[in-house]
Specification:
The structure holds two protein chains of two kinds. Chain A is mainly beta. Chain A is built from no helices and eleven strands. In chain A, strands 2, 4, 5, 6, 9, 10 and 11 form a seven-stranded mixed beta sheet that branches. A four-stranded antiparallel beta sheet of chain A has the order 1-3-8-7, with no helix packed on it. Helix content of chain B is 0%, strand content 47%. In chain B, the strands form two sheets. A five-stranded mixed beta sheet of chain B has the order 1-9-8-3-4, with no helix packed on it. Chain B has a four-stranded antiparallel beta sheet with strand order 2-7-6-5, with no helix packed on it. The radius of gyration of chain B is 13 Å and the shape is globular. Classes of the chains: A mainly beta, B mainly beta.
């Protein structure tokens, strides 16, 4: 079984809809991260969490929110999706800022 | 974090060693060199990391020059499944800094 899982793997939605992407991990790591990747580009950090009570904005947090429901769960929400949020979204985990391990990704399309 | 420079693409024959270079001339003394790869929109996969000594694991070897301004990732016997984008990243371990992925090197392993 995968250590970092993401649901859904693919999602197509319409402009203005609220969307939630979920991430779960069984690695026991304290830190979790959300990244997005646009075609042909590297990953950009959206939000990160050091633990369930510590949430921090990354470089591109506008239009997104997160919730750390438990140490093992970190969800990303798009309150009102727009087309330029169409991208690949990756969740990652690490132990105290060490090596990050990534989930398989969610491909989101906003029409 | 120090920035890195990688060639945009490289070819390698199947079964031969793939040597992927990375320049990081502004690296600081406490920054590690990490390598990840991404196979066709899958989640980035951790390969190896090191500080100043050469490192080897079951996937690859990492050679860091004595002045630490450059490094080389070596895949000893490349297979078609090693075709991917390879990212060289420098960061301070055990301290939060996001992974700056950049554009990476697209390695094409050919039969």
């Amino acid at each position: 079984d995968a250590d970092v899982t993401q649901t859904p793997r693919n999602r197509i939605t319409k402009t203005g809809k609220r969307i939630m992407l979920e991430c779960s991990q069984t690695k026991g790591h304290d830190r979790m991260y959300w990244y997005r990747q646009d075609p042909g580009l590297g990953l950009r950090l959206i939000y990160y969490s050091f633990d369930v009570k510590d949430i921090n904005k990354g470089e591109i947090s506008d239009g997104y929110s997160v919730s750390r429901q438990a140490q093992a769960k970190f969800s990303l929400s798009l309150e009102s999706a727009i087309p330029n949020q169409t991208a690949l979204y990756f969740c990652a985990t690490s132990w105290s800022g060490d090596t990050q391990y990534f989930g398989p990704g969610t491909r989101l399309t906003v029409l | 974090d120090a920035k890195t420079t990688q060639p945009p693409s490289m070819d390698c024959a199947e079964g031969r060693a793939a040597n992927l270079p990375c320049n990081h001339s502004t690296i600081s003394g406490n920054e590690y060199v990490y390598w990840y790869r991404q196979i066709h929109s899958q989640g980035p996969q951790y390969i190896i990391h090191g500080l100043k000594n050469n490192e080897t694991n079951e996937m690859a070897s990492l050679i860091i020059t004595e002045d630490r301004k450059s490094s080389t990732l070596i895949l000893p016997h490349a297979t078609l499944r090693d075709t991917a984008v390879y990212y060289c990243i420098v960061r301070v371990a055990r301290n939060f800094n996001k992974f700056y992925f950049g554009s990476g090197t697209k390695l094409n392993v050919k039969p």
